[in-house]
Amino acid sequence: MIFQKAQEQEGSSSSNPFRPTQPPHRRRITAGSVTVAITGRVIASWVGTTSSPAESAVYGGLRLRFWCARGVPAGEYPYLSSETADAEPSRLLEKGHPVTAGFSITLAVSALLILLARFVLPQLPVKSRAVRLSVPDTALVGVGVLGLLFHCTAMFSRGIYQGVPAVTPLIGLVNSMGVVSLVLFVVPAVLILIGLRRQQRGALAVLGLVLVAVGVTMYVGGPFQLHLAAIFAATVVMAVLVSLFVLPPRRARVLK
From residue 159, how far is each of 143, 156, 174, 204 by CA, in Å? Predict the structure, then answer.
């Protein structure tokens, strides 16, 4: 009897043209997308993003990559127009720069204030936990920071390189979002972690996690606001680590 009722209910649901039928994985992904969308909206209200057509295309491309990575075909992707679905996510990044000036200024000022606190507060750096960098480690961290800075500006602030044609091929490789672009992100991040390997393990682990978050939200996919939040977190965490625990290399003594 119960089995017969179940069959009748199943038959009535399948015959109802107004009841959408979705496979189980679609229902789970849709539920997850609600959480991601809420998080993105909260971050967007803080970052101050706009809603220009170019920016909407960027958001659509990154979300498309987020869904396609989970096995959902582009034609079945929810909230995605056909125009955006036909475009490649990497090409969408070239249509606009969704990073607002307010976000960039806030990020730079926050990192600068954290670093300047080291020279203002006598408690910094924490003497009992501070570790001195060697000259090679300092070079590794410096090269890594410059590499990540170039990677970020090549994607969102390419105008500053207009007078430097030598870096144009590298900018194209970064924005291709392919293997070379991934390498140009991973190598500087690893150099930073290697250079800071003698620092506090907990702080180093947090820095590693936020760098992974930046890479995942950039290459695997997700809301663009979440990627901006990961960039902000990585910058702040590194500034805090340097301000609290890093001692500069010893100065070489000059023999008279």
Answer: 22, 9, 15, 33
Domain boundaries of the chain, sorted by first residue: 101-247
How far apart CA 79 and CA 77 sit, in angstroms, is: 7
* Gap between the Cα atoms of 129 and 146, Å rounded: 26
DSSP 226: H
Tokens of 202: 């907990």
Q: Which two tokens stand for residue 35?
A: 């959480």
pLDDT of residue 222: 87
**Mean pLDDT score, 147-173:** 93
**What's this model's pTM, rounded to 2 decimal places?**
0.65
Bridge partners (DSSP) of residue 132 are 247
CA dihedral 33, 34, 40, 42 (to 10 degrees): -170
Q: How many other C-beta atoms lie within 10 A of the C-beta of residue 39? A: 15
